[in-house]
């Protein structure tokens, strides 16, 4: 991976002529994304993110922390936060922003000896699962990192609205695979990142997977664009 997403974050943090990211998926055309959005403060965050942050308790693990905006807000409000991301450049930016404990790591590689009261996965937190058949692998890893009375706060969206409907009202989703399984690509400053898998999960599918893996799953908040926040706790 060229770490272009992280490069954009670090460029913005260091004032190194940042440009918009160009993102594209297997079901959507290219779209520009301002890197500045990743540096938003609490008041600029969507309601789902604000709600998740307000629900945080105890020791927090921020998975896929990006520019560290969620971690910073929690840290400034007295929380002990560990921020992780697979992007070395994003973690460098977090360090420059004074996130106290940030680590370059895939969640699957994180040592399970440390337990957390809250595990936070935001900005389509299910994305890192990649494929529907990997949900159990990730949920079991998250479970191993969670204290007995801990919680996972995760958001995603139901992408069914992006598919056409036939005359009978049935959605024309792919015949094979799950309709929320996307291929994702990023361009930045003329470079193109290697395409990667990114998963959006409708709430019912997430709930079923959670129960199958020993969690309660509660729908906390629904957004305006088929998005939602869910809270997972141990059965």
Strand order of the largest sheet: 5-4-3-6-7-12-11
Order of helices and strands: HEEHEHEHEEHEEEEHEE
Write down the overall mean pLDDT: 96
Low-confidence stretches: none
For the largest beta-sheet, the strand count, sense and barrel status come to: 7 strands, mixed
| Radius of gyration, whole Å | 18 Å
Q: How many β-strand stretches? A: 12
Structural class: alpha/beta
Report the principal-axis shape. Answer: globular
Give the number of helices.
Answer: 6
Beta strand %:
25-35%
Q: Gap between N and C termini, in Å?
A: 37 Å
Helix content: 10-25%
Q: Secondary structure elements and their pairing?
A:
Layout: H1 4-14, E1 21-25, E2 28-33, H2 47-55, E3 60-63, H3 69-76, E4 81-85, H4 88-96, E5 102-104, E6 116-121, H5 135-144, E7 146-157, E8 181-188, E9 191-192, E10 196-199, H6 203-212, E11 215-222, E12 227-234
